[in-house]
Specification:
This protein is of the alpha/beta class and 205 residues long. The chain has 4 helices and 13 strands. Helix 3 packs parallel to helix 4. The chain is globular and about 45 Å long.
């Protein structure tokens, strides 16, 4: 999985041939490659950081996200809604709702999203955004799932494992845990409970 780089929190850099995709970049290190596409799941500061976006954005970068995110940019944006299909650059993208069931932090009414992205070689990656184990997840078809598991604002590790066991990805990469987001061992708990393969990524320096 050398093409998937965890940046901390829910931030990832994903390489697809010559293209650089970022998802929810936050407190990213200097010197990273410039972004061809930046996907944003929602408008909370640790997912939508203009300071971090400025480090990797060029005048050719395409910003993808819900209304309260893309409205902050003048051009080169793709507005998305939950539960829809899009073509973004060379990729087929399906948005998945992302919301809390019993917490107030991510109301369903905000229409925030996760993404299932089919990359050029056919691999599907699901980035869940900030969410609980919601009913819509049971219908997901993906090869790799990037799942929050900190439990403070999102699913717990046990819930993330239950979610993954319901839609059966080949691989889970835990995210959004530690550093004030629940125990630093949440990723290990997912690995223990998920019936498939789990990779605990180290944060890209």
């Amino acid at each position: 999985m050398k093409h998937i780089h965890w940046l901390g929190q829910s931030g990832f850099r994903i390489e697809d041939d010559s293209l650089q995709m970022y998802i929810d970049p936050y407190i990213i290190p200097a010197g990273l490659p410039k972004a061809d596409f930046i996907f944003l799941t929602h408008s909370h500061f640790d997912h939508f950081s203009m300071e971090d976006i400025a480090r990797i954005k060029t005048n050719r970068t395409i910003i993808v996200g819900p209304q309260d995110v893309v409205s902050k940019f003048l051009d080169s944006t793709v507005l998305v809604l939950p539960g829809k299909k899009y073509t973004v650059g060379p990729w087929n993208v399906t948005t998945v709702p992302a919301y809390n069931l019993d917490k107030k932090f991510h109301p369903k009414e905000k229409r925030w999203v996760g993404y299932i992205i089919t990359f050029s070689h056919g691999q599907r990656i699901y980035h869940a955004g900030d969410t609980d184990f919601i009913p819509e997840m049971r219908e997901i078809k993906t090869d790799i799932a990037l799942l929050p598991c900190g439990g403070t604002y999102t699913m717990t590790a046990a819930q993330a494992a239950d979610a993954a066991n319901s839609f059966h990805p080949s691989l889970v990469i835990p995210m959004h845990f530690g550093e004030g987001l629940g125990t630093v061992h949440a990723g290990d708990e997912v690995k223990k409970l998920f019936q498939g393969e789990t990779i605990i990524k180290t944060i890209e320096p």
